[in-house]
């Protein structure tokens, strides 16, 4: 069976971008003919400073977010990255396969490191090699992600290809990205040219999965827009990034296409559309945030799920690591 792997960083609370770009697809793939492994990538989170107490809390809250969104520990393997040491072990080997020049081209590193790249951690620079290991330690064939991860998945294929070529084997598969849906790139509510992000300093820029109904309504009411009415077809949104973003969010939340949404709301002013969007967002998100809060009341249950997930994951990962070491010529 094809195998799916994907992960999210516990580097803050979950956003609507993570939910629509990634988690919603994680849930649907779990229910299709895939074996699915979903991961809180705590080793990736610490590539930028994380307060230790926050990291632990965010990791459990992310697990709660996965489960509350419909990822079932009975159907999927749910893990925390550092609890499966094979990720980091294969990651080292991939550090030796990946080339400096490849890493330097990664736009996410440039964005996250900002102007002072010299002060960024070595881990942030090497992040995509560890990400390749996260995927390939399970020989995963499909990776559901948002648009922003496309370049890292190409690098994953480059690493697999170079490893196979250098050692004359056909061992690591070439993974397919799965980038689908109306909201593969959810933008900031304050700036239509920036993606919605957990780590944006402005809380008004994003909808957090833990926001209550009032907060969601207020953020949508204040979201940046233009003064025009909504068009009746998707083509009319081409030059209107903020308007497009809100319609994309509506479509993705309601499992509709953008054209279907515009057939209903075309001609409306934002004063009419925003309350509709807020109502829809609250209806879809509040059951998830309530379930997250319930799960967070007893984190022992979450810890048990992650411990069991780690055992299941290591059954797949350990033999693949063993075989990799053999191929490389390491004495065991
Ligand atoms: N705005 C977004 N729209 C669609 N998909 C998104 N994803 C993230 N933001 C959006 C998808 O969520 C998954 C997990 O992302 P991540 O936590 O590994 O890191 P990220 O992409 O760097 O996400 P953030 O929220 O922006 O985190 P920070 O602020 O810590 O960097 C990925 O599949 C991603 O595509």
Automatic annotation (TrEMBL):
One of its GO terms (biological process) is tryptophanyl-tRNA aminoacylation. It catalyses: tRNA(Trp) + L-tryptophan + ATP = L-tryptophyl-tRNA(Trp) + AMP + diphosphate + H(+). CDD domains: TrpRS_core. InterPro entries: aa-tRNA-synth_I_CS, aa-tRNA-synth_Ic, Rossmann-like_a/b/a_fold, Trp-tRNA-ligase, Trp-tRNA-ligase_bac-type, Trp-tRNA_synthetase. Its main location: cytoplasm. A motif ('KMSKS' region) lies at residues 195-199. GO terms for molecular function: ATP binding; tryptophan-tRNA ligase activity. It is found in: Cytoplasm. Its EC number is 6.1.1.2. Keywords: Aminoacyl-tRNA synthetase, ATP-binding, Cytoplasm, Ligase, Nucleotide-binding, Protein biosynthesis. The keyword Protein biosynthesis applies. A motif ('HIGH' region) lies at residues 10-18. NCBIfam families: trpS (TIGR00233). HAMAP family: Trp_tRNA_synth_B. Belongs to the class-I aminoacyl-tRNA synthetase family. This is Tryptophan--tRNA ligase. It comes from Roseobacter cerasinus. The gene is trpS.
